[in-house]
Amino acid sequence: MTLKIYGIGASRTARPLWTALELGVPFEHIATPYQGGATRTPAFLALNPNGHIPVVVDERPEGNLTVWESMACALYIARVHGKADGVSITPATPREDAEALRWSFWTVSELEKDALTVLMHRMALPEDQRKPGLAEQAENRLKVPLAVLQAHLQAQNAQGEAYLAAHRFTVADVCVASVASWVRPAADLLAQYPAVAAWLKACLDRPAQAQSRALK
Ligand SMILES: N[C@@H](CCC(=O)N[C@@H](CS)C(=O)NCC(=O)O)C(=O)O
Q: How far, in Å, from the CA of 156 to the mean position of ligand 1?
């Protein structure tokens, strides 16, 4: 039985990679950059007709199972390959499962697009291609979801829970922190949400995060 993860760490593939590394699940990393045509070959398109990374292929006794969409990949690995023992990052109760699902869906619908605009136009693009006006507009819109995240984390902290779904770090934190990290170039904005900034730092300081990003 082999778990294969296609993609590179410096992409949304970090989400399933980070999840697998946190769990200590053995996997084969199939280095697949999103630039240069590797995601447009017939073989790759047969795995993901969208032509995007990540893709997870779980070679199981009953047959191969293919998962794409980065949040689905991370949640799948946690659920199917992790232990729901209340210690690992796998959700262990219906409440933890609900939190992981809702915050992952929330991230792709409420946070990801504007966070990516901040990353691209404050840091990732060559300076002469950056449009600070686009970044400013995105930062203004991000005040709404960041306030929602801040309120949730404050409520969690008030009941002695340091992370999104539980007292311990779970796959919910992988899914949200991997996107919230894109807002870091807007340091002044992030500083307005101290519970978010502290939680994000705790998530990104985890060794498995750096290990996932380093996989080329
Ligand atoms: N919603 C998808 C988006 C996947 C995606 O856009 N991946 C990028 C890399 S981060 C990609 O493969 N881009 C190459 C392309 O679209 O050609 C997910 O979360 O998996």
A: 32
* Domain ranges for the chain: 2-86, 94-211
Class level of CATH domain 94-211: mainly alpha
Distance CA 98, CA 11 (A): 26
Among protein residues, the one whose CA lies closest to atom 11 of ligand 1: 52
Which helix (H) or strand (E) covers residue 202, if one does?
helix 194-204
Full-prediction pTM beyond 0.90?
yes
Give me the CATH code for the 2-86 domain, please.
3.40.30.10
161 alpha carbon – ligand 1 mean position (Å): 32
- Give the tens place of pLDDT for each residue, 56-79: 999 999 999 999 999 999 999 999
Q: What angle do CA 148, 187, 203 make, to 5 degrees?
A: 65
